[in-house]
Amino acid sequence: MQQELCAADPALARRAAALVVEGGPPDTLILDSWARCAAAGLQAGAAVQVPVVDGGELARRRERAGGVRRLALAQMEALVPQIAGSNFLLAFADADGVILDLRTDSRFCMDDGDGIVTGSRWREADAGTNGLGTALASGQAVAVTGGEHFFERLGRISCTAAPVHDVDGSLAGVLDASSYVAARQRHTLALVRIAAVQMENALLRQRMRGRWVVALATRPEFLGTASEGLLAFDDAGRLLAANARAAQLLHGAAAAGTACEALLGERWEALVSRWRQDGAAPLRAAGGLALHAAAVARPPQALPRASRPAAVTAAPGVVADDPAVAEAFRLVEAAVRITAPILIQGETGCGKELLARHAHVASGRRGHFVAVNCGALPEGLLEAELFGHVGGAYTGARREGSVGLVASADGGTLLLDEIGELPLAQQAALLRFLDDGLVRPVGGTASRRVDVQLLAATHVPLAEAAAARRFRPDLLYRLDTVRVELPPLRRREDFCAAVRSVLATLDGASRIDDEAVARLARHDWPGNFRELRSLLTRALLRRGGGRLGLADVEPLLPPLAPAAGSALQQQASERVRRVFERCGNVSRTARELGISRTTVYRHLRAPLAR
Ligand SMILES: Nc1ncnc2c1ncn2[C@@H]1O[C@H](COP(=O)(O)OP(=O)(O)OP(=O)(O)O)[C@@H](O)[C@H]1O
């Protein structure tokens, strides 16, 4: 085939000859790709014409890629420190080869029009043999080095790319790391391949939410790593999906619909009851291979009957009428059914802990709710506080030792508040725990399996902390399974209801005028609910109870700067308009916001912000 190709294209013939001199003829993956390019009518010596989609199309493609793209971004973050300094570029492209996202080393510059930009499309039919296009066309991880590119112009680059498959086997995208040939590193292909496998595994877990997902490995210590096999089963133990590693471990027997017993050599009910008691179960697969299997996710029905969550409503006094807040409550209720880690982001005092407590109630877990403020524990003792210690493990340690905060939440819920403050060393220990569910006390050798619903809360965006190397991207990726954003009070549509609810918890007999509420809505509440509660308490004390009016709250608020005042006024009007657009009627808007219809009309008439 090589001769035929080279006879038809002199530029390709030169390249093939040079490759033989450099280190051997191109392998079949590359030759097959050259054949596809030649069949598509490409000429190796011609200029590379890489098409670029416009901004609107790029935005639509990003939107379509949704969850897969988020997984890719997390993997790219994790890859950056591993190949930093090697003059590289990382790209994630969709199944058409259109680059959706790029991360580049500051020293990597394609300054002469090679065109590796977001929106550029790297299908073989356009760009010839190249990492992204050839991984997509072949469905395999591939390294395309220098002269192996079909077009001569791309001969300076080395690309390593791995396709990412969805659970149904379709292509979900492709990850690529490229560098100049001289700067390439031998381990890059392995890193990219692992990142792609991790994306595939995360996709499988996402798609199979609410199902049994079982991890398989030849040794227990491989469970929780990128080399684990994953199988998803329905309630009756029939196979729904398998990742590539599981298919390999089961010697190709992993066809959808196959009964668990035929695959894992044991009755489904027996395995389920073993998984309920302990994480991993050794077994002998149908092919005779000794394997370890652990359930890593289970359906809500699989919870013991007594702990199955009833229909959940927010606790009395909790205001959750704002659509974003209501959605946050719904999301945590769904996440706890499959014990997925939850990351709550929001400003101080906006209700992160309250939402975490709601998650605990919704989960029906019988263990304790344990909240840990990661920023408040002394750094030297943090690991022992979290994971416990054996007696006398360090100077000042309790003689009888301690189980630690993580183990004290066993069977319950653990909230790691201000997770962004967790020092790097403890981040590594936490990641280990998330990977294997084992708690290892400081100074001890024995470990203990602990089952917790994990929530982490932060007021700083963790992606920024990860970019600044203060937070491990791999930990971020694990915690960020379900992310919930709680809006600050000043942006909540249920602001008026929040004021009235907090007031009712302070003094059930007191009331507040619309005018006073409108004035409160013009403050920006950096302390959110905590600040609101404190201000209303002071107002009630000043007045001695009864009905709060504008004169009672005005002196307690910072004066409105004229510009800020009008900005906040506009904010309030926008909030009313948003609710009005949703309800479509003034009376309902007034009821929902807890203000009079006249006030609604006034806001609707206010000039629109530019
Ligand atoms: N939706 C709500 N309805 C009523 N009260 C609320 C609501 N959200 C929060 N609060 C009250 O506000 C106070 C602060 O809430 P919480 O401790 O959950 O905030 P947080 O975001 O965890 O704060 P921090 O970031 O400072 O830890 C609590 O007293 C809580 O009861």
TrEMBL record:
Residues 318-541 form the Sigma-54 factor interaction domain. Keywords: ATP-binding, DNA-binding, Nucleotide-binding, Transcription, Transcription regulation. GO terms for molecular function: ATP binding; sequence-specific DNA binding. The keyword Cell inner membrane does not apply. PROSITE patterns: SIGMA54_INTERACT_2, SIGMA54_INTERACT_4. The keyword Isomerase does not apply. GO terms for biological process: regulation of DNA-templated transcription. Signal peptide: none annotated. This is Sigma54-dependent DNA-binding transcriptional regulator. It comes from Rubrivivax gelatinosus (strain NBRC 100245 / IL144). The lineage of its organism: Bacteria, Pseudomonadati, Pseudomonadota, Betaproteobacteria, Burkholderiales.
